[in-house]
Amino acid sequence: MQDNLRASSYKQLEQKSKYTNMFLRWFLYFVLILFASYFIFPLYVMVVTSLKTMEEIRQGTLLTWPSSLNFDSWLVAWGGRGYGAGDTFLRPYFWNSIKMVVPAVFFSTFIGAMTGYVLTKWRFKGDQWVFLFLLFGCFIPFQAILLPMARTLGVLGISNSVIGLVLVHTVYGIPFTTLFFRNYYVSVPTELVKAARIDGAGFFKIFFKILLPISAPIIVVTVIWQFTQIWNDFLFGSTFSFGEAAPIQVALNNMVLSSTSVKEYNVDMASAIIAGIPTLIVYVLAGKYFIRGLTSGAVKG
Amino acid sequence: MKTLKIEELSKNFGSTEVLRKINLEIDEGNFLVLLGPSGCGKSTLLNIIAGLETINEGSVYIDDYNVSKVEPKDRNIAMVFQSYALYPSMNVRENMIFGLKQAKVSKEKIEEQLEKVSKFLQVDALLERKPSQLSGGQRQRVAIGRALVREPRIFLFDEPLSNLDAKLRVEMRREIKKLHQQLKTTVVYVTHDQTEAMSLGTKIAIMNHGVIQQNDTPENIYNKPSNTFVADFIGSPSMNLIKGKLSQDNDKIYFSTEGKNFNIPINNYNFDNTSQLDNKEVCFGIRPEHIYFKKSNENDFEITLRAELSEYIGHEQIMTFDYANQELLAKFPSTIKIELNKETKLYFDLTQISIFDSNTKERL
Amino acid sequence: MFKWLEKNLPKIVMAPAVGLIGWFVYGFVLWTLYISFTNSKILPKYELWGVGQYVKLWASRKWLISVDNLLVFTALFLIFCIVIGIILAIFLDQKIRAEGVLRTIYLYPMALSFIVTGTAWKWILNPSLGLQKMFIDWGFENFTFDWLVNREMAIYTIVIAGVWQSAGFVMALFLAGLRSVEDEIVKAAKIDGAGLFTVYWKILLPMMRPVFFTSFVILVHISIKSYDLIVALTQGGPGISTTMPALFMTQAAFHKSQVGLSAASAMMMFMAVAAVIIPYLYSELRRENAR
Q: In this structure, what is the dihedral angle of CA atoms C266, C267, C272, C273, given to the nearest 10 degrees?
């Protein structure tokens, strides 16, 4: 092993590693940018297509830049063409989604927080089983509950309504929100709660005055997660509603699939973008919380 | 030929200077301890020796070869980490021979080394186990084995005992010392624990703020600390540093403090420079172990002080005395009973004192 | 009375969650299970019929195609997502300058709904105006990319869109995993002389076994539930060449008035998911308790 240390071979070692390093570095960036284009490509195409006229679309290719930024398709996608029946556009369904998402996110988050609080700070025998019981709800394929839910909504008189969807999304959001809050509260030291109890604080006081103030990170993660899941839902929306009460993803799909005489791809793309913007904005602004929710909360069994 | 030489080494992390013009040399077979508080730069220095960190200025020589730009694997060094850093997905055998396989050593030689080292460290029964199935002490030994098996020129240890509980730490410390005595390898060892440093090292380099404060044998560091930092860092409890003034009267030099009229005669002290000592502001240093309750030597200086506090720590007690409104600690056997808040006679062993310049903090 | 209330307050607060899940999850699944053993057509009938629906199911050509498609899709989806995810994670772990930007780019598809994804890719893969036209206009005159309307190839378009949506997620998982490794291990490997490739292949990736399992479970789960993407991209076509179990279930219940059959297919999906999830949860919980 002594023989390794030769002055001249050092120079060679230095040189060789410098060149291989540079080559590797370039290769690295090349591959990363290649993949970045695979991921950006659809977004680029969507935006560019939505700004072209159908003429331009037929003449150019997916990548061609529009000759002028034509926002007509956006207006049509949002507000329609102005004639009566058969004209579907996104605006009413966008508001449906908002009316559905806000209460559903609120209720599921609140219930999840309280349940997570109880499961971690008010331990009792078998609380692990209760947690598992609830956790299971994260994993079931919703096909297994579509039929009975459809019947139940009918019986309750709220099928094909925004309220019905709020109920559905709240209920099936509970397993996830409970998971997030439980995992977060588990790492909050119990000493905090014990000290508060010694000071005489009761169940609700401890929650609102002690835990809630330090729950900001997990609330953000949960809200972002729920918002994204519910806004992006299609299965529940299409199964339990149709027509006027439909949420935006259902409306989008209907618009794209409806085969009126001429397919207007630019309107399709504009509609897709409109339907995707809210969650995209949330992601861009609060992305790291989104990722945190994905990688830690959702993953830890 | 020095096994390790470091010349004018400087290292910055951004705008922070972590190491400043470090100069260091070790002979073969020495056990050099880099000792200091957190942030003093000792781990950075170790990483630089290993080749895991880049250098801003200066050079590193191993066996007189300039290795400053050489990869770790070509430097002929091996390292033992604080967390042992054993590869979790491999068993003990694979962990230990990994480096040899990377160096494309022949199969026979690998087996030979493995057998030799694993028997020596008594881990041969553990070869098929995974790190997660080992105890802390066993993991330590495997980590050392992984380093030993490569027969490097220099062993680097980065606070290897910090993760162990107190009892295990003392045991492993002794094992490391025995290892060094048997193998006579060259070692650079980083720690913040001065007891470890004193018991293991043949040379200790105490560092603070990226500068080596003193590089010397443990005895010299203990008896002749080169500045107040070293005096304070070594020893438990640390050396007493009393502020006061020197007065020089012809050949006689005295130390005095405000408030009390003790004039401690300083004779037989090896001053660097005996001029300009009069009225010099100094710190008078004496270790708690060198303050006695009965006269032991001819030259012991008698002094009467009031006892304030007593801390019992088993076979010893640490007593705090009031010396002109400054605290003075002394260590006595716990069988001696000294009354608190009363004046007692104490005896300073004047052969064991240190005097430091109050401003430069350097030893005079 | 108040004392009782106070003592049991935690349980009372927990009751809504437990009750709702108990009813809407467990209760509903059991109902579906029951119905799968009846001969319900348009409306549920409650007299038991035995396993007739299951027999019918597995004799149905459409169901068999669904299952076959699911297997093909799942296999490809898994492989591509994991391979791409790992590659991206490893590359991003190399102290890249634009790491934040790149991460955002790889992950944003997860923020979109499957409908938006399907719509976009449907347009891109449009036989006359999409990729095919692009390459032809660029000079490759004989280039064809009509997979979307090709019975044999349509399933692969779903893989392309699905991987686009989910690979970033796998990357995020692996990146987090790689970053959680203490750097002393990498230092030790460097001293042992391992080159970059060896460090990843022999040391870091083997340490990522838990991440592999998690990715596997989550991806399989997403795959079995695939519905939105199929509806948006191909509607199960051309013909029924890209139909999947989830699609089969919905169509049987709401278009073919075969509630019993639909329930049976739903239960098959349920069992498939359970077969993957239950062992995973079991081993995870055991690990957590062992700590």
A: 80
Which of C191, A3, A1, C187 shows the shortest CA–CA distance to B105? A1
Instruction: Return the amino acid letter for C189.
Output: A
Phi, psi dihedrals of residue A183, rounded to the nearest 5°: -60, -35
Contact state of C189 with B50 under an 8 Å Cβ cutoff: no
Inter-chain contact B67–A5, Cβ cutoff 8 Å? yes
pLDDT tens-digit series, residues A192-203 = 888 888 888 888
**Domains in chain C, number:** 1
CATH classification of the domain holding C274: 1.10.3720.10
pLDDT in tens, B265-282: 877 777 777 777 778 888
Residues 18-77 of B with CB under 8 A from A: 62-63, 65-67, 69-71, 74, 76
Whole-structure pTM value:
0.84
Cα-based distances in Å from B194 to A245, B41, B220, B238: 75, 16, 14, 11
Q: Write out chain A residues lying below 8 Å of B66, CB-based.
A: 7, 10
Same domain, A7 and A51: yes
> The domain B240-357 belongs to what CATH superfamily?
Nucleic acid-binding proteins (2.40.50.140)
Give Cβ neighbours of residue B306 (< 8 Å, ≥ 6 apart).
B321, B322, B341, B342, B343, B344
CB A215 within 8 A of CB A113: yes
- How confident is the model over A179-221, as pLDDT tens digits? 889 888 888 888 888 888 888 888 888 888 888 888 888 898 8
Mean pLDDT by 10 residues, chain C (291 residues): 74 87 92 87 78 86 91 94 93 86 89 92 86 81 79 89 92 89 89 88 89 88 89 85 90 86 91 88 74 52
How many domains is chain A partitioned into structurally? 2
CA–CA gap between residue A282 and residue A59 (Å, rounded): 35
Q: How far is B111 from chain A (nearest CA, A)?
A: 17
Amino acid A167 reads: L
Range of the domain at A52: 2-70
pLDDT tens per residue, range B1-58 = 778 888 888 898 888 888 988 899 999 999 999 999 988 889 999 999 998 988 888 9
- Residue B125 C-alpha, separation from nearest chain A C-alpha, in angstroms: 28
Task: Point out the residue among A32, A143, A294 whose CB comes nearest to the CB of C266.
Answer: A143
- Pick from A164-173, B70-79, B328-337, C31-40 the range whose average pLDDT is largest: A164-173
Chain A contacts in chain B segment 152-171 (CB below 8 A): 152
Assess whether A12 and A128 both reside in one domain: no
Confidence of residue A4 (pLDDT cuts 50, 70, 90): very low
Interchain proximity B50–C182, CB inside 8 Å: no
Nearest-CA distance from A277 to chain C in Å? 8
The CATH architecture annotation of domain B4-226 reads 3-Layer(aba) Sandwich (3.40)
CA-CA distance, A123 to A118, in Å (whole number)? 7
pLDDT of B340 over the 50 cut: yes
Question: What range defines the domain where residue C272 resides?
Answer: 53-290
Q: What is the pLDDT of residue A299?
A: 47
Whether residue B76 and residue A10 make contact (CB cut-off 8 A), yes or no, is no
**Shared domain check, A277 and A151:** yes
Measured from the Cβ of residue A19, the count of other Cβ atoms closer than 10 Å reads: 9
Which one is predicted more confidently, C179 or B261? Answer: C179
Q: Which residue of B has its CA nearest to A2?
A: B76
Query: With an 8 Å Cβ cutoff, are C191 and B89 in contact?
Result: no
Query: Nearest residue of A to residue C162 by CA position?
Result: A39
CA distances from A27 to C88, C95, C199 (A): 13, 14, 18
Say if residue A62 is in the same domain as residue A182.
Answer: no
